[in-house]
């Protein structure tokens, strides 16, 4: 993918942001400092704007306890608590298929700790797979900015081994072997749907 | 659908709740007082428990401004505001297909006011349709507890007419003609996936 120069088409801020950033830094460390969530939101915006896929992060579930309704201004939530989500964070539609995934980053270098996932997220993936959904995890090793798409069925395999006394993490080596490595680009920043194409074949 | 008697299978509270309610009231007014959202959540729980579909309501999006982290207790959100959702409220997977819908109830008797929808929800449906998602609206006329599934393409048709100066509502008559009427049942309370089966044919 090449960087496009102004050609009369309307620029939007996000695209300019990409270009500014990409000219300031080397490719390898391009996204250091940006959270995986922010990177995926940018990527999903790109997919949405270009009619490639409609994928959104779900809002964080909140238990609202008390709300103020001041006159002439917006309702203000005065007391609320975080609730545990009953699903994964991302879902949507791509080429007619239901897409469902969660994204996790780890500071570890040699393995991905399974404790990054909760039981209910794994159960949600199991149920989506039964409905023929396309389910996976996006795993980022922060230290070297490497991203993998790992099929939910592989993740579930290691989860179940752990539950029956197996190791509490998946080695980087295993993830390299089973997963699809996704290289950072300009647009989309994380072209993870290319890995999904492979999953769908 | 017949009511099942205890047969050694574990009862769950939701099912008992249904039975208790249904014996106390006539079928026509069975769900008066329950919001459409609560009814759909119950229906989706049924679909989920029975491996029929995985469909969830998305959490309400909140802009969090201030959070307290007291020692030894849960983080407490002290200030937050409601944000406008950028998608419809419900989505999930059924028979391999991406399902996406919004649910609206009206107190009107002869028509459904289009102002129940926001521009961005209609745009979201347009984009999901482009990706071959199954998109629709669930519309409930509260006065006579009647529920319809209306295809997104029909809804968008009337929305676009409105934008170009047409009427600001869809007549009940039109909804009766174009939509799929869904009859309340015991389990699931609102068997809307039967209408979806027809949409998918």
Automatic annotation (TrEMBL), chains A, B:
Residues 1-26 are annotated as: Disordered. The record marks 104 as: Transition state stabilizer. Pfam families: RecU (PF03838). GO terms for cellular component: cytoplasm. The keyword Chloroplast does not apply. Its cofactor is Mg(2+). GO terms for molecular function: crossover junction DNA endonuclease activity; magnesium ion binding; nucleic acid binding. It is found in: Cytoplasm. Mg(2+) binds at residues 87, 89, 102, 121. It is an enzyme of class 3 (hydrolase). Binds 1 Mg(2+) ion per subunit. Signal peptide: none annotated. One of its GO terms (biological process) is chromosome segregation. Keywords: Cytoplasm, DNA damage, DNA recombination, DNA repair, Endonuclease, Hydrolase, Magnesium, Metal-binding, Nuclease. It catalyses: Endonucleolytic cleavage at a junction such as a reciprocal single-stranded crossover between two homologous DNA duplexes (Holliday junction). Its EC number is 3.1.21.10. SUPFAM superfamilies: Restriction endonuclease-like (SSF52980). NCBIfam families: PRK02234.1-2 (NF002581), PRK02234.1-5 (NF002584), recU (TIGR00648). Belongs to the RecU family. Endonuclease that resolves Holliday junction intermediates in genetic recombination. Cleaves mobile four-strand junctions by introducing symmetrical nicks in paired strands. Promotes annealing of linear ssDNA with homologous dsDNA. Required for DNA repair, homologous recombination and chromosome segregation. This is Holliday junction resolvase RecU.
């Amino acid at each position: 993918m090449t960087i496009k120069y102004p050609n009369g088409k309307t620029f939007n801020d996000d695209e300019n942001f990409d270009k500014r950033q990409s000219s300031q830094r080397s490719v390898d460390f391009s996204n250091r400092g940006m959270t995986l969530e922010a990177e995926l939101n940018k990527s999903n915006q790109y997919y949405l704007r270009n009619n490639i896929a409609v994928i959104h992060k779900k809002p964080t579930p909140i238990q609202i306890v008390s709300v103020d309704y001041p006159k002439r201004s917006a309702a203000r939530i005065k007391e609320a608590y975080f609730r545990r989500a009953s699903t994964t964070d991302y879902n949507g539609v791509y080429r007619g298929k239901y897409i469902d995934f969660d994204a996790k980053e780890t500071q570890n270098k040699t393995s991905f700790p399974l404790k990054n996932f909760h039981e209910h997220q794994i159960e949600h993936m199991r149920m989506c797979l039964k409905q023929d959904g396309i389910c996976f995890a996006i795993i980022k090793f922060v230290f070297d900015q490497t991203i993998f798409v790992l099929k939910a069925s592989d993740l579930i395999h290691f989860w179940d081994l752990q539950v029956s006394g197996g190791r509490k993490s998946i080695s980087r080596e295993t993830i390299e072997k089973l997963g699809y490595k996704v290289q950072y680009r300009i647009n989309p920043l994380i072209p993870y749907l290319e890995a999904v194409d492979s999953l769908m074949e």
